[in-house]
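Example 9 (inverse folding). The structure is encoded as follows.
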């Protein structure tokens, strides 16, 4: 099971060219959906405006710019450094690297009928990593469940990505374990996969493309000093004390209310 290419068995019912065309269509849908998402939400416009705003700040040299890019790639992208919560970071890394292995191995197995057991094993490992990280996140780490006490079965549009991803990978693994071939399981697998890749404009799929740009812009703003123009949020700042909604807390001591720190945070 872990060494047999399930798409090779499928070729007896569906021509390999059909599956290859399907993969190309999914790639096109992801690219088109991401562009639509960026334009619709104004992400690109926001980043360009922020870059123009920082032109008057301290200039950043070429070497420092390369260092910032490397830090962004290694810390923020490859290691998911944005997550302070260790459990959430591990779950995210399992899902991210598992998804990459799963997608790459799928493309290789579909386009190359002679793909060996190595790619099949990578396909299974990647799919299982997605399932472990995804289900762990869905049932135990989600903020609205762990911190806010909402039902784990509560669904919102933001859940489209994780649910379609888990459905696609889970059905794919079950389909492969059952011997492959064209049938009901394969139809459900294709349906979930189509929702995953075609639903980019309505899900969080596109964030994997523009979040590195956001991380780079954040590090750049810290390096050139433009982030120093942001208002402070410390309670010892007179301006922040005056704008406090509760007059009782305007002159409160700095250590007041720190009892909440006795409970370990379970949020982002």
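The amino acid assigned to each position is listed next.
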């Amino acid at each position: 099971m872990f060494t047999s290419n399930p798409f090779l068995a499928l070729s007896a019912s569906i021509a390999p060219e059909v599956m290859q065309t399907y993969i190309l269509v999914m790639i096109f849908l992801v690219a088109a959906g991401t562009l639509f998402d960026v334009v619709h939400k104004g992400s690109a416009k926001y980043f360009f405006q922020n870059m123009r705003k920082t032109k008057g700040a301290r200039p950043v040299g070429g070497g420092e710019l390369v260092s910032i890019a490397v830090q962004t790639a290694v810390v923020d992208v490859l290691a998911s450094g944005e997550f302070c919560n260790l459990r959430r970071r591990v779950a995210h890394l399992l899902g991210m690297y598992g998804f990459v292995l799963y997608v790459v191995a799928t493309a290789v197995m579909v386009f190359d009928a002679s793909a060996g057991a190595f790619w099949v094993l990578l396909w299974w490992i990647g799919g299982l990593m997605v399932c472990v990280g995804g289900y762990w996140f869905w049932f135990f780490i989600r903020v609205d469940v762990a911190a806010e006490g909402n039902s784990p079965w509560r669904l919102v549009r933001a859940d489209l990505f994780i649910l379609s991803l888990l459905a696609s990978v889970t059905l794919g693994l079950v389909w492969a374990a059952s011997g492959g071939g064209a049938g009901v399981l394969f139809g459900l697998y294709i349906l979930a996969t189509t929702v995953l890749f075609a639903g980019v404009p309505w899900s969080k799929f596109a964030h994997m493309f523009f979040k590195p740009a956001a991380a780079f812009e954040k590090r750049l703003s810290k390096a050139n000093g433009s982030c120093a123009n942001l208002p402070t949020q410390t309670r010892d700042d007179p301006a922040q004390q005056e704008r406090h909604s509760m007059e009782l807390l305007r002159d409160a001591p700095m250590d007041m209310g720190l009892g909440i720190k006795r409970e370990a945070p379970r949020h982002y």
